Amino acid sequence: MATTPIHPDQLVPGSRIGPWRVLASLGAGGFGRAFQVERDEQPGRTYTLKVALRPASPHTPEEEDVEGRMAREVAIHMAYDTGLKIHAVDHWPILSGFLYFVTDYVEGETFHEWCWRTQPSAARLLTVYTEVVRQVGALHQRGVCHRDLKADNILIRKADERPLVLDYGVARLPGTATVTVGVPPTSPYLLPPECVTFLGQETWRQGARFDPGVPGDLYALGMLLYEALTDGYAFHPKLPYDLLMAAIVTRVPAAPHVLNPKVPRALSDIAMRLLAKRPEERYPDVSALLQALWEAAKERKQPDWQVSLALPPPEDQSAPAGGGGHRDDADPPPRASGEEAPAAVASEAAPEPAGVDPRAPVPERADSGHVPVRRRRLRWLWALRALLVLFLALWLGLSTLAPTPEKGSPHVPTATPKAPLADAPRSGPATFLAAALCAVAGVACSAAQVRPEPAECPEEAREAMFRVLGVDTTKGLKAVVDINQPGDQSQLGTYGNGKVVGRIAGYSWADPALPDGTLLYGQLWTGLVDEYGRPAAMARYSEAKLPDGRTFPVCIVLGNPDGRVRTQPGSNADASVLPRELPVSAVERWP
């Protein structure tokens, strides 16, 4: 039976937020979730609604003030020409609930998605990129610094390829204080060198703040151009944190025209100047950058500016030395949701990589290697995938024609009240083929939430927990089950199946290996029972991000090491009512 949504994570198509009806989810970030919506009196006209993931609270730290960030974003859209009109601002479901605002709906794709799809020439890329710079320059003229410029915050409108700069949650407005202690939150590999240097001084621990200002936005524009020209990173995000911070401060990445011979030297030089280590060595302002782009555009009619910047397949190119590492089909996009640096990220690295703790996790690839993009191979994989989807769909259709069980066949209940649920549901050919179809197609298919199988904790997680971090299983730990759940620790929360982000709550008796504020990323399952047959839930946290920004694989379960937490009255198969804060346990084996 459908439940009335009480949190943005529970909103589905058909749900209502005030007078707005949800049509589809458009994605989520660290502080808000976006939906495509419409109003009953305007059928067919769609809008974008963005809602905060946490309600306003006087106890919320300034750097985690979600409502404050969204209010700042609304103010910028209303006061400046951002290309989007504000249609509504309100709270849901009650006046003290979640702040939301509604803007025009723009059909488009992110900057990197546009690059991957179109494989633009240098001339075409220059046109789009210059418009991004113009919009940033218009903000700078009004005293506004964006402070979170990256590909996922730039939408390329499908109708005319006009870029729109979005997400002003941490923007700096004239006459206002910085939002956070430390530096503005962003993905660690995008931090400018001056921010890394500031964090290394650790004055942020006493409440010091650093505003990158105009030079920080220029550096971010340089990273955007570098990634578009090379289809890679200046500094690979898979590096261990200490090595990454040291590389940002000390190492000059390979120039784009070295990594990709198709890149015009003029654009390569612009990108490298924007990525200069010292702020004063970059362009003095956006007007100077626009002048450099205008000078480069004089060459755009030359033949080498008209060919796609796409890299050749791996068998046709050698691997030049240097560079930050190219993306391949195994790499994540340059910005992964949920990988933002915390408001204050302490760099424990010495200026030189030699001072880095040798126990730090090892990345999948070294940062200095050139790994080509296998685009041609990907096209063949997608073609094969399409054929398999068609084949499995035909089989699935035929399997549904099988005779149904005769009347009187035993009924299998969805849950057994006095015994634990089976580890896996019974399934026939149709169920198997449906799952295969979903897996091959790469689409999201609904599935019953089934308790995961017990398994050994991965060796790298045990190494990180017990040798690198020194977790003591004899000491207690408590954590907020999910930081996106509204309310405080004295209240109960309602949790559905899916991803959760916990946070260690520090107490005097807690294990110092996982300090207060450590984030835990994992999965929660509902509708289970404990060893006594009572309703229960389970959560496994498989990654920990410490307050200094370092991440480690872990095996941490909610509750005691048996991994089951008894639920409160009001729970059902799809939602578990739990205290907002519960004990957590580091385990050597997933229960």
Account of the 3D structure:
This protein has about 600 residues and is an alpha+beta fold. The protein has four domains: about 10-105, Phosphorylase Kinase, domain 1 (2-Layer Sandwich); about 110-170 and about 180-305 and about 345-355 and about 365-375, Orthogonal Bundle (Transferase(Phosphotransferase), domain 1); about 375-400 and about 420-450, no CATH class; about 455-590, Lipocalin (Beta Barrel). The chain is built from twelve helices and 20 strands. The strands form five sheets. A six-stranded antiparallel beta sheet has the order 1-2-3-4-6-5, covered by helices on one side. Helix 10 runs antiparallel to helix 11 (about 430-440). It is globular and about 75 Å long. The two termini are about 30 Å apart. About 40% of the residues are buried.
Number of domains: 4
Give the CATH level 1 class of the largest domain. Answer: Mainly Alpha
Number of helices: 12
* Rg calc: 25 Å
User: Runs with pLDDT <50, length 5+?
Assistant: 315-323, 328-378, 394-449
Structural class determined from secondary elements: alpha+beta
**CATH fold name of the largest domain, please?**
Transferase(Phosphotransferase), domain 1
State the fourth-level CATH superfamily of the largest domain: Transferase(Phosphotransferase) domain 1
Largest sheet: 6 strands, antiparallel
Bin the strand percentage. Answer: 15-25%
**Proper CATH architecture of the largest domain:** Orthogonal Bundle
Overall pLDDT metric: 76
Give the strand order, joined by hyphens, for the main sheet: 1-2-3-4-6-5
User: Helical percent range?
Assistant: 25-40%
How many individual β-strands?
A: 20
Whole-Å distance between the termini?
30 Å
Shape: globular
